[in-house]
glutathione-specific gamma-glutamylcyclotransferase
Amino acid sequence: MSFNTIEINKQRQDLSGRESVWLFGYGSLIFKADFPYLERRPASIRGWARRFWQGSHDHRGTPESPGRVLTLVESPGTVCAGMAYRVAPAVFDHLDVREKNGYLRFSTPMAFSDGGHEEGLVYIATEDNAAFLGPASEAAIARQIATSRGESGPNRDYLFNLADALRHLGVEDQHIFTLEKLINI
Ligand code: SIN
């Protein structure tokens, strides 16, 4: 997949002059923090739901056989719990490469689990990106996750690591836990 969002993301927010920036992670950014951070706090955003609707041609699949990874879809009233990281602006150079397969940075209000609010950036793969796969039954999504693998390893590890991290945070997410059960049958 030649499409990538690195250059677009650089133009989206001007982070120059900022001492630090909050990042909200809801998928692999919860369980794989391969970047330096100044602070990490459980947090949530409102109005969005996690869905395995984004294709992965790099980390968890290949161009011929894409895996499925998470994006956020609009869902009024839904609270999406995840992890917030306070990072130096330069960390976005790394994150933009990691999230290059269709994700764009958006600004969002975040609520910390232990109180307080901040504005943060979140990577979302919207439905107009070239790698977007969209909805499918949970059985079909589970089958695709069970059989895909990419540079970062088996697609199923993405799901299992996330499910473990959510349990650890005390977060209930029906989509994630149903897929985990379907793959374990
Ligand atoms: C995220 O984790 O916040 C973005 C999607 C991903 O990298 O899995």
The chain has one domain: 6-184. The longest strand covers residues 67-87. The domain at 6-184 is CATH 3.10.490.10 (Hypothetical upf0131 protein ytfp).
